[in-house]
Amino acid sequence: MSDEELKEEQGPEEGGEDVLDQENEELNTEWLGEEEWGDEEDEEEVIEEDVPTFVDNGDGTISDTRNNLMWAKSDSYAEFKYGINWFEAQDYCESLNEKEFAGFDDWRLCSTEEAKSMFSFTMSNTDKDGAEIHVDELFEEGGGHNTWTYMEKPDYHQYAELFSYVTGNEMWQHKDNEYSHARLVRDAGDREDYEPEWRKDTKKFER
Questions:
Q1: Which of the two ends of the chain, N or C, has the fewest CB atoms closer than 10 A to its terminal CB?
Q2: What is the C-alpha separation between 40 and 115, in angstroms, rounded?
C-alpha cells in the first residue's frame, strides 16, 4: 500500500479540526470586539459635540456648561481702560457684587484651574492691543491678556498667581503689579468658600 493510500485511510491528523475551529473562533471574536469598540468611540464623540462648552447668556455673562461656572463676558480693562493690581481686582469684585451684576452678588476672582479651563490654543480672540489670546470668541474682544487669580503664595502673601491667556502659563506676581487684569467668575451651582482663613476678618483688602 502506498503512502498516499495509507494517509487517506487514516483520515485527517488528530486535533487538526480543533485547531482550525479555534482559529476561526478567535478571528470572529476579534472582529466583533473591534466593531463594538468603534461604536462606543463614535457615540462618545457625538455626545461631546452636542454639549457646547461656552454659552452666551445675553446678559453680559458666559456660562461654562462643563465646569458649572459663569464668567463675566468682559474683564476689568473694559471697566477701567488700564491695568490693575491684585487689591484693585478685589475691589472690582466688590463693586460688581454691590450692584448685583447680572442679578448676582457672589462674583469673585478665579482659581488657577478655573482660569486654565477658559484657555485653549484652538480658540482665538484679541486683546486690547490687537494681539491674539486663546479664549473663546464669545468673550468680549479688547480685554486684557491675563487675569489675577485668588491664589496666594504660601508664606509669601505679597504674591498672587497670575494666568496668561497668551501662553497658557501661570506665574507668581507681586500684588502691587499694576499691569494686570481680572476676569471674574461665579459658581453656577453651590457657592464655595474660597478665601484663606487669614482673609476672612475683612471684606476690603488693604495694601
A1: N
A2: 32
- From residue 67, how far is each of 80, 113, 169, 186 by CA, in Å? 28, 11, 20, 11
* Residue in the structure block whose three cell numbers are 478571528: 27
For residues 176 and 160, what is the distance between their CA atoms, to the nearest angstrom? 10
For the chain, domain boundaries: 74-199
Q: Residue 140 gets which letter from DSSP?
A: P
Separation between Cα atoms, residue 164 and residue 171, nearest integer Å: 8
Q: In the chain, where does DSSP find H-type helix?
A: 3-10, 16-50, 76-80, 86-98, 112-118
CB burial readout 175-204, b (16+ within 10 A) else e: beeeebbbbbbbbbeeeeeeeeeeeeeeee
Please check whether residue 136 is in contact with residue 89, taking contact to mean a CB–CB distance below 8 angstroms. no
Nearest partner of 117 among 58, 56, 70, judged by Cα = 70
Tens of each residue's pLDDT in the chain, 207 residues = 555 555 555 555 555 555 555 555 554 544 444 444 555 555 455 444 555 789 999 999 999 999 999 999 999 999 999 999 999 999 999 999 999 999 999 999 999 999 999 999 999 999 999 999 999 999 999 999 999 999 999 999 999 999 999 999 999 999 999 999 999 999 987 544 444 554 555 444 544
Rounded to 5 degrees, what angle do the CA atoms 77, 61, 187 make? 105
Residue 71 three-state SS:
strand
What is the spatial distance between Cα 177 and Cα 159, in angstroms, rounded to a whole number?
10
Phi, psi torsion values for 141, nearest 5 degrees:
-75, 160
